[in-house]
Write a structure and sequence with these properties.
The protein is an alpha/beta fold. It contains eleven helices and 15 strands. It is globular.
Amino acid sequence: MRLLSLSIINYKNIREADLEFSPKINCFVGRNGMGKTNLLDAIYYLSFCKSHSNPIDSQNIRHEADFFVLQGRYLRGEATEDIYCGMKRRQKKQFKRNKKEYERLSDHIGLLPLVLVSPDDAGLIAEGSDERRKFVDGVISQYNRTYLHELMQYNNALRQRNALLKLETPPDESLLDLWEEQMAAHGQYIHEQRRQFIDQFIPIFQDFYAFISGGNEEISLAYLSQHDRYDVRQHMRETRPRDRVLGYSTCGVHKDELEMLLGGYPIKRVGSQGQNKTYLTSLKLAQFNFLKRVHGFAPILLLDDIFDKLDADRVTKIVELVSGDAFGQIFITDTNREHLDRILLQTGQEFSLFHVEDGQVTQ
């Protein structure tokens, strides 16, 4: 699969751009704050129906404009796919596939598999468990539509239980029973799919890390869930008094954790900047590999400023990986033209190079 062309109007700081891309490597070069990441975000939006950096759609409209439009033409197998997104202030966004509007945006997820590697990935290590669950959910949702539906149903039941917990008077026990039953049922499916995914994912992830790092460091992932330790239905009943005091639910798959380990210890405590960057890059390349196996074709790969804080050997290994036949179309941003030229020379692959300055893009 590849993105043939992209049209942008009033998205973030980009007033207008009409771009055609190389089937292999596409590079956006320019100083920080010029709009390179916004171009990648526009591509991300067309895959996930939302921005990676700002979930509030109206805030992605360029200042002083009333709307934004994104249009991408893709080659998916032997067929072309035209994807359109339009958003006006104070109105619902429109998302269309081949001129037909989606009834549910969730039906689009997984059509255009994509992996983004960016500086924001640091939150997977530094932030709370929410970020790590989102990573797992994001991967599984790109190939398992039932999972996305179960996750939405679970989150709805969780919201309803939390609302009951916050009532000043004790809530109806039968209503709590109802929502807890739904949380347990949907949660069991989510837990099983997460467990299955992590078990298959770990060896792929370890192989990438070993290649990039030279094989001198031991890394792993550990999936921790209350579903492995409790009868969740019973545990929810037992935690009702405490949950009423706290005002939220303390039991369920929304409390699952994905521990990221280096040498058997949390990488958050023991990892250097270079090790953290290698860990996160390996995680995302493993995500790419996993999605490729599931879909039968290579996802689009977005690399946003990923060579910062990595030594020359690790950069060389990453470039060697992504420029190989196993990877498809790639989009790279960098601030250093000379650095980018060395990388492109090293790959020996076909490429297109774009300069970005104050939201203006020239090839």
